[in-house]
Amino acid sequence: MGCDALLIHPRYSQLKGINENIGLGYIAAYSRAKGKKVEILDIAARGWSNGEAVEYSASLSPEVIGVSILFQEGADEVLKFIKALKRRCSGSRIIIGGIYPSFEYRSLLENHQEVDFVCIGEGEITFYELLECLDRGDDISEIKGIAYREEGEVRTTSPREPLMDLDVLPFPSRDVLPSMLKQRPYASMVSSRGCYGRCSFCSVNGFFTAVGAKYRARNPERIADEIELLIKEFGINKFTFDDANFIGPGRKGRERAKEFARVVTERGLNIEYSIECRADDVDREVFECLKESGLARVYLGVESGSQPQLDRYRKDISVEDNLEALKLLSELGIFVQMGFIMFDPYTTVDDIVSNQEFLAKVKEIFPAGGLGYIYPTSKLIPLSGSEYMDRLKEAGELKGDYLNYYYDFSDKKVSMLYRVSSASASLVWGTKRLLKDNSLINAGFPEHWAKDRRGQ
Which domain holds residue 327? Predict the structure, then answer.
């Protein structure tokens, strides 16, 4: 069989169903356009066990295996898979990539001999250049944006400059989409990279700031071209944009969003789609245009109904701003799934009371079925590369290691409330799973999208 490279999207126990990895699609498409033979293996989409994935990988004898680590939570289980993969595919070089490995490359290379390289930053050009370098037998140090071991020491090369014009990239390869459409009726897309926000709990900001470009956006015409191609090839009309922030910064971002809506409408593309954005992105004129072009769902980064907590999160927004954004989206009939972080290291009882009062107001804003389920026990995760993790580390309050950072609540009353509410939530979810009741699971999606999404 054989191939130059195999790109693997591993299983994550915290994810139900299958989720298209657009990043691997872009990496594969770029290297394929340069003449490389690249395969994509999505283990969950194939319905395989890790053992079956290892045997299949060995049958291909790839020179390079790339494994995407999407989440800090679950990295441990992915690394165990990579260890088994390396034992069976000892002749293959393994490179890992993603936001988490980009920040934790040193710990990963020091503690996991099964990992040969870490891609730091965006991967399209770096991965292709690695394939070329190994083919020619050149010096690895000449490749930008990579970390590796040499004589027992972890070394990094010079940073990879960001690709400023995203429109020069080929459309992502869609090898996995046919399998995915059997479980969910939509395709994932990306219209931009990065985020202009500075949320203290998020690693996206740090990642794209580190690569030298906080926010870049594709041309709306090019996005519409990709949508048309997917409609033609797969017969679908539902899409979800995986952008960290679809709207983008300032007037320029709002104008681009309106231009996208105009292009979609003028081309007569009868689509429905979802986006992610901040509450201060919600502008009546912009969202009326987006609604007309097919916007059905918004994942809105509200995060809190307590002003002190919003300030700790560096949201640069007020509680009232959040409420106004929610009111407008409800008025426009756009389904909302709220990003909400009830607990952080410095949460106070007053924060919790404010959040409960805020959520009561939110419930009054939306009609039945217009708002997704809000997890009452959501807890801030100290992500590598986030300002919050750095803050905890400097204060001597960060516990654990690169595989599992955690903290204790500063307020013992809050700690008790968290334990009690978590136990209650676990009981509710366990009962619903036992009864095969998916009402809460599907509550996060528009009713007409819920079909075929059970178990997501």
Answer: 184-450
User: pLDDT (tens digit, 9 = 90+) per residue, 190-213?
Assistant: 999 999 999 999 999 888 877 667
Q: Which residues contact 311 (CB under 8 A, 6 or more apart)?
A: none
Total domains present in the chain: 2
Q: CA 218 to CA 124: how far, in whole Å? A: 16
pLDDT digits (tens, 9 = 90+) for 408-435: 999 999 999 999 888 877 665 555 455 5
What are the Cα distances from residue 183, in Å, to 20, 188, 242? 11, 13, 18
Report the range of poorest mean pLDDT among 195-209, 220-234, 252-266, 332-346.
Answer: 195-209
Structure tokens at 390: 């750095």
Distance CA 63, CA 226 (A): 31
Q: CA torsion sign, 372 to 376 to 378 to 380? A: positive
25 within 8 A of 84, measured Cβ to Cβ = no
Helices (H), 294-342: 307-312, 319-331
Question: Helix, strand, or coil here: 442?
Answer: helix
| CA gap 290, 366 in Å, rounded | 19
Nearest of 72, 210, 70 to residue 145 by alpha carbon: 210
Per DSSP, the chain holds a count of helices (H) and strands (E) of: 18, 16
Mean pLDDT to the nearest integer, 268-273? 97
Interatomic CA distance for residues 445 and 456, integer angstroms? 10
For residue 139, give the CATH number of its domain.
3.40.50.280
Which pLDDT belongs to residue 428? 58
> What pLDDT, on a 0 to 100 scale, did the predictor assign at position 334?
98
Considering the domain boundaries, does residue 174 fall inside one?
no
Share above pLDDT 90 across residues of the chain, in percent, rounded to a whole number: 82
Residues forming beta bridges with residue 97, ordered by sequence position: 68
172 is a domain residue: no
pLDDT tens digit sequence for 334-343: 999 999 999 9
Indicate if 133 and 190 belong to the same structural domain.
no
Return the SS3 of 296: strand
Give the C-alpha separation, 27 to 124, whole Å.
4
User: Is 379 a domain residue?
Assistant: yes
List, as one string, the DSSP characters of 233-273.
HH---EEEE--S-SS-SHHHHHHHHHHHHHHHHHTT---EE
Query: CA 54, CA 56: separation in Å to the nearest integer?
Result: 5
